[in-house]
Structures are given as C-alpha cells and as structure tokens.
Amino acid sequence: IDGPRPDKHEWAELYADPASAAAAKKKKAKTTTQPPPGMNKRGLYMDLVWTPTLAAVKEREERLEKEMARALLHAAEQYRGQDTAVSKLGFDFKVARIKKDN
In Å, how far are 1, 5, 20, 22, 45 from 11, measured between CA atoms? Predict the structure, then answer.
C-alpha cells in the first residue's frame, strides 16, 4: 500500500452507510445549536427577572475594583518610586480595609 494508512475515523467514513452518515450529520446539527445569550434551553429569557439584582452586583464589583486600584496606587506612591512587592502594599490601611470588606 502506497502512502499513509488511514486512521480509524477515515476508515469509518470510507465504509459507513450513506443513510447512517446523513442521520449522524442531522443529529450533530441539532445538538450544536446554542440558544441566544440570556435565554435558557427552553427558550425562556432568564435575564428579565434578575436584571436589577445582577446590575447592582456588577456595579458593586466595579466600584470595589476601582476603589482597590486607587488604594494600591496610593500605597505605591507612599514608597516614592522605590521598588516594592505587592504583598507590601497589602499592609497599607486602605488596601487592608478593602481586602477585609471583600
């Protein structure tokens, strides 16, 4: 035999029944469809009920993230350009307070 030997998937394609191959493609096409974002498997939108709560949680997380970034910057400025580890910045009062709140 000249050339490389076909692997098991190629053998299955070579000797597969055309009807079963078409059925497999149809089944594969059904399982790969995904619902749009915010919709569950049954076609119901899940974000309508939870939107206010999720929006409030997202706003809180963004606020805390920005507050932590400001506190880390302030702590780094206390070292006046010297190299310092982030673990040292954690000892700053504001940074420690924000970490404790989370």
Answer: 15, 9, 15, 17, 44
